[in-house]
Amino acid sequence: MPDVQPSALPKPAPRRGLGRDAAVASICGFVVALMVGASFAAVPFYDWFCRTTGFNGTTQVAGSAPSSEPLARKVSVRFDSNINGLPWKFEPEQREVEVAIGQVVTVYYSVTNTSKRATTGQAAYNVTPLTVGSYFTKINCFCFTEQTLAAGETREMPVVFYVDPAFAADNENDTVKNITLSYTFYPVREPPPKPLASGEPDQRKGNL
């Protein structure tokens, strides 16, 4: 049997599989990171979009009253209150007021924590008809901050608002005579206690 020289043996094919797998994994990782980033960015973008356009009945925010005088046209504004998952009693002090377009109005909601412990909630809101959202403007509102109530505590919370005069110039609103401002309070979970650094005394238990 003739001897076979090493140089005559076929050379093994280069191992390209690992390089290709690494490239595919990198691409998949980039796509996943992009999707996660997009999901986080979608929340503030959606909030900005709703505030800008009044989409889904989202109201507008202003720092001061309109510069023009109120119009002669008036609308009735009704106030709705709801609780979702909180031991609270929540209701407006007035169920309905008649306001002139462009008139700044202050109304109050009352909320009572009926439980035996402190609880925290935050209100979501909208107005109906939904097309009115881009004209219903709030100067001050309790919905922008978390509300923590002690056991049995009652709190009065103001809402300062006006209906933008541009509302009257929109032909779609010619037949609108009633607007409903609705709030729903949802529970806010309390953050877990902050872990103590090594060697830091635990002041919750007092000095030993």
Automatic annotation (TrEMBL):
Membrane topology value: Single-pass type II membrane protein
Naming one, the record's GO cellular component terms include: plasma membrane
Give a yes or no for keyword Transmembrane helix in this entry.
yes
Residue ranges annotated as Cytoplasmic topological domain: 1-19
Localization of this protein: Cell inner membrane
Principal localisation: membrane
Task: Fetch the InterPro entries from UniProt.
Answer: CtaG/Cox11_dom_sf, Cyt_c_oxidase_assmbl_CtaG
Topological domain ranges for the Periplasmic compartment: 43-208
Recorded GO molecular functions are: copper ion binding
Protein name, per record:
Cytochrome c oxidase assembly protein CtaG
- Source organism per entry reads Rhodopseudomonas pseudopalustris
Instruction: Report which superkingdom the organism of origin falls in.
Output: Bacteria
**Classification of source organism:** Bacteria, Pseudomonadati, Pseudomonadota, Alphaproteobacteria, Hyphomicrobiales
UniProt GO BP: respiratory chain complex IV assembly
What's the family? Answer: Belongs to the COX11/CtaG family.
Pfam families given in the database record: CtaG_Cox11
Role this protein plays: Exerts its effect at some terminal stage of cytochrome c oxidase synthesis, probably by being involved in the insertion of the copper B into subunit I.
**UniProt keyword Cell membrane, yes or no:** yes
Q: Where are the transmembrane segments?
A: 21-46
UniProt KW keywords: Cell inner membrane, Cell membrane, Copper, Membrane, Signal-anchor, Transmembrane, Transmembrane helix
